[in-house]
Each structure stands twice: as structure tokens, then as C-alpha cells.
């Protein structure tokens, strides 16, 4: 199994961010961390400030946040969470020893619209150098830079952040998306790659942001799973280059929660096999390219996943854990992050983790307490945090 020496995107990484980079690489293959988006902001339990804490006795090992609307100068994000509260919880996560990740659901630079008004022809071209909105967009990136460096540790240094811009670009629902080889948008993959490189160059070189690891995260639903070659081609569609990516991520709701009946019914065993295949691709490419691998967003195993195993009460252990530990490359996938526990998503595939009283709560607890999985109370002390030795 070939691998190369990891080199960060930023050769001037701050000491705490470099410590995290090195520690994550050292941990790759040894265990996987369980994460959660907006863990303490969005929950069902009244027993604690986290559904995961209430069920499993600890906070997640990876905390996800989003800074959508920072580009507009708002005081709160896309989900109406005040940025002051987000900064507080990012610092808290860091102090607990958790890894902090940050996505950016930005509005469209032309329409300034979000969901439902996020696509407009020529948007990426307009924000690239020479485009009509380039200077405007640099202003947006300036707001991003300010936010990325605004959360300090006890020594006054910006905390390390895994930044995941322009996610799910292989779909067709965000303004930055080139789509996939089979379903391209009007944005060329080369333009997407140029947007990514421009963003990194600006943050790192122009604004001196040195506390960030950069995560690439295509959407699984548009990747052709016919063969290893089509999987890799789809995964790398729009890839900006190894020198611009620290983490090879993956957003996969598609394989984990589908209908069991009706015209769109799927086979859980087939989807489990494809889930293993896409995790294997991410882990293998990470190993070969000196990158970290992560399931940067992942669906919630429920009725569909439960139909894969022998016991309908064990979707987390039977479906998710068996995929995570399927082979040496899936074991390199270093974290799994379900989306937020929003009440409106309970009936959909984006619903995140079981709350106390859920029929899957006990299986979820077994999953996150498996020897291969980690919560915040069992991760190493990454970079001067209060994690565990």
C-alpha cells in the first residue's frame, strides 16, 4: 500500500494547526471520530445541551458549524444562530479536544439569494479574476478571513479550523457547482478549480490566514459507481489539485436513507456496498496523495439501513460501523458527521442522531462507544486542548 509524506496546503500553518494536521495523519487508520453539525444549537432532548451527550455520555469528537451570511455582514448565520454564539461554541469545542469544522452556505453573488435562488448563469466566471463581481467577491472572502481568525484559544491564537468551502459541487444546487461528468452545469470543472485556488490563495497569501485545513467534499449522489474508474473520475471532477486540499471529504446521504418500498425503492445491501466503495475511494486517494479522509456529511441510518442487518434495531452498528471498518482504506476515513437535529428534518434523510427514547438510541450508543469510534472524551489531546492523552 503506497503512501506519501503529508504536506499541508499552508506551509506556514500556525503551530496549533500544524499539531492538529500531524496528529490527524498519525491517527488515520487507527480510529474514526463521530461528529455532528450544530450539536449544541439544535437538539431534541431537554436533559442536556446535546442529544449525543444525553444518549452516549459525551460530546461529539468533531463539531460542525456554518458561516453562511457572514458574507452579507449579518450578525447571525443562515440558520439564524448568532455568530457570537457560534464563536463561543467553536472555542468550547476546541477546549474539549474536539475538531472544529466550518462550512459556508453563501448566497449567490449575482442574485444574493439562498436556497431556491442560488443558481445564476455565469456566477463563477463573474467572481474569478477579470469578472464583473471579482472585487465584490474579494470583499466576501475578506469577511470569511475575519471570521476564520476571530476565535482564539487560551493563548490568544486562532484555533485550528477545518474549512469546507464550496461543498457538494458535484450536484447542481449551489452556485459554485460544475455538476458531474454525466450531468454538468454551465460552470466548467476548471472554473470551479480556479475558484477554489483563488479562495485559498487569497485567504492564505493575501490575508495571512494560517489556522485552516482545507476540505474538499463532493456529493455522492451524482458519482457514477459503475467501476472504480468512474468512481474516481466522478469524485475528482473539479478537483483543484493536491497542493490546495488537505482533506478528501465526502457528503453521502444517498446510500444511507432511501425508500424501501414504492417506485424509488432501493436495496439496502446494494447501497451498503456502494457506501463501502465510495469510502474506499476516499480513503485510497487520501493514502496515495498524503491527505486526510473524512465523511464530511453523512446520512442518518434508520429504517432503510436497519433492513441491511439481521436486527432491525441496529442500523448504526450493522450498516455504518461495518462500512467504516470494511477494509484498510475505509478505516482511513477519520470522521463521520451527520447534519443537525432540526425538528423539520425528522422524516428526512438529513436528520442527524437519535435522541433519548429513539428506537435506535441504544444502537447509536453502542456505535459511538465501539473500540473503533471516538467521542470528545476519548480523542487525543490534539493541539494544546483539553483532550485525552
TrEMBL record:
Enzyme class: hydrolase
Keyword Iron-sulfur: no
Catalytic residues (positions): 168 (proton donor), 297 (nucleophile)
EC number: 3.2.1.78
PROSITE patterns: GH26
Hydrolase found in the keyword field: yes
Domain GH26 per the UniProt entry, residue ranges: 15-377
InterPro entries, A to Z: GH, GH26_dom, Glyco_hydro_26
Keywords: Glycosidase, Hydrolase
Coiled-coil intervals: none
Signal peptide annotation: none
Any one GO biological process: substituted mannan metabolic process
Molecular function via GO: mannan endo-1,4-beta-mannosidase activity
PANTHER family: GH26 DOMAIN-CONTAINING PROTEIN-RELATED (PTHR40079:SF4), MANNAN ENDO-1,4-BETA-MANNOSIDASE E-RELATED (PTHR40079)
Protein family membership: Belongs to the glycosyl hydrolase 26 family.
Protein name according to UniProt: Mannosidase
UniProt source species: Bifidobacterium scardovii
Amino acid at each position: 500500500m503506497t503512501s506519501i509524506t503529508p504536506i499541508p496546503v499552508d506551509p506556514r500553518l500556525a503551530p496549533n494547526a500544524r499539531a492538529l494536521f500531524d496528529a490527524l495523519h498519525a491517527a488515520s487508520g487507527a480510529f474514526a471520530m463521530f461528529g455532528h453539525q450544530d450539536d449544541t444549537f439544535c437538539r431534541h432532548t431537554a436533559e442536556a445541551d446535546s442529544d449525543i451527550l444525553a444518549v452516549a455520555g459525551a460530546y461529539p469528537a468533531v463539531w460542525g458549524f456554518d458561516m453562511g451570511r457572514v458574507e452579507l455582514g449579518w450578525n447571525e448565520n443562515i440558520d439564524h444562530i448568532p455568530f457570537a454564539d457560534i464563536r463561543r461554541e467553536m472555542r468550547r469545542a476546541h477546549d474539549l479536544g474536539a475538531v472544529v469544522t466550518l462550512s459556508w452556505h453563501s448566497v449567490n453573488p449575482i442574485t444574493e439569494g439562498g436556497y431556491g435562488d442560488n443558481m445564476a448563469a455565469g456566477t463563477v466566471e463573474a467572481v474569478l479574476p477579470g469578472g464583473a463581481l471579482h472585487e465584490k467577491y474579494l470583499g466576501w472572502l475578506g469577511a470569511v478571513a475575519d471570521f476564520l481568525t476571530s476565535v482564539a484559544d487560551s493563548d490568544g491564537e486562532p484555533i485550528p479550523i477545518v474549512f469546507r468551502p464550496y461543498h457538494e459541487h458535484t450536484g447542481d444546487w449551489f452556485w459554485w457547482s460544475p455538476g458531474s461528468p454525466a450531468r454538468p452545469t454551465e460552470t466548467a470543472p476548471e472554473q470551479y478549480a480556479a475558484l477554489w485556488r483563488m479562495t485559498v490563495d487569497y485567504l492564505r497569501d493575501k490575508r495571512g490566514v494560517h489556522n485552516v485545513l482545507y476540505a474538499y467534499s463532493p456529493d455522492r449522489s451524482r458519482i457514477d459507481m459503475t467501476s472504480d474508474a468512474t468512481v474516481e473520475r466522478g469524485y475528482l471532477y473539479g478537483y483543484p489539485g493536491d497542493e490546495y486540499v488537505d482533506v478528501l471529504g465526502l457528503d453521502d446521504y444517498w446510500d444511507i436513507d432511501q425508500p424501501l418500498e414504492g417506485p424509488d425503492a432501493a436495496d439496502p445491501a446494494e447501497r451498503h456496498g456502494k457506501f463501502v466503495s465510495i469510502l474506499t475511494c476516499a480513503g485510497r486517494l487520501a493514502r496515495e496523495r498524503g491527505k486526510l479522509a473524512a465523511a464530511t456529511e453523512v446520512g442518518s441510518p434508520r429504517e432503510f439501513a436497519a433492513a441491511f442487518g439481521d436486527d432491525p434495531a441496529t442500523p448504526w452498528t450493522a450498516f455504518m460501523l461495518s462500512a467504516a471498518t470494511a477494509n484498510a482504506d475505509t478505516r482511513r476515513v477519520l470522521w463521520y458527521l451527520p447534519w443537525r437535529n432540526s425538528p423539520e428534518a425528522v422524516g428526512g434523510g438529513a436528520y442527524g442522531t437519535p435522541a433519548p427514547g429513539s428506537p435506535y438510541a441504544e444502537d447509536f450508543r453502542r456505535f459511538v462507544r465501539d473500540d473503533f469510534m471516538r467521542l470528545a472524551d476519548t480523542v487525543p489531546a490534539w493541539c494544546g486542548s483539553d483532550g485525552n492523552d
